[in-house]
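Comment thread on ticket #2218

A.B. wrote:
> Attaching the input chain for the structure job we discussed in standup.
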Amino acid sequence: QFLMNLPAGMIQLTKTATVTYADNHYGIHGAAFKAGAGLVRLDGTLSQTGASDLTVKGDLDFNAISEINPYIADSTRPIAVDLHIKGTTASPELFGSATFHGETIAFRRGLGELDALVGTLRFSGHRAFTDQFLFNYNEAGVRLSGWVELPCFVLSAADIKFKASELPMRLPQALSLSAD
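C.D. wrote:
> Ran it. Output below, let me know if you need it in another format.
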C-alpha cells in the first residue's frame, strides 16, 4: 500500500498497481490514486529523456497536491481530466481535455485567484485551446476563447479572444489598470 501524507491531505494508491523502471522510463500500470476528493487512474510510461506514453483519467484535486504543485496554491474541488501525455517530463505534449464545473483556483507567484471556472480546455501537443471558457477575476466576469502554444512551459504563440467588463488589474509593483 502506498500512502503519502501532505499538509493539504493524503495521496493513497487505491488498488494494486505495477510500477517498473527500465531505460529511463517509469512504467505505471493499473494505478488509481485517491488524493483529497479526487480519484485519478494512471496507465503507461513516463520518461525524463525519452518518449512518454501515459494516460491520466479521472478527477484531479489540485488542493490535495498543492504542496508538490509549483503553480497552484489552492483549489476548491476536483477537475475532470482525460489526458494522454507524450514527450518528456521537461517538454510534455498533452492530448485530451480538462473540464471545469465552477471551481476556484488560487495560483502561486502573485497571480491571484480565478473563481467560477466553467468550460473545457482541450490539448493537442503543446497547444491548449477552448471555444469558451468563463471565470471571474477580481469579481469581474471574463470570457476567453482561442488557443496558446506552451512548449517547455513557455508561451510561444497565442490567438485569444478576451472579453470582460470592468476588469481591475493589480500587479504587485503597485501598478493598477482598469479595462473595459
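A.B. wrote:
> Thanks. Noting for the ticket: Residues 46 and 52 are 4 Å apart (CA to CA).
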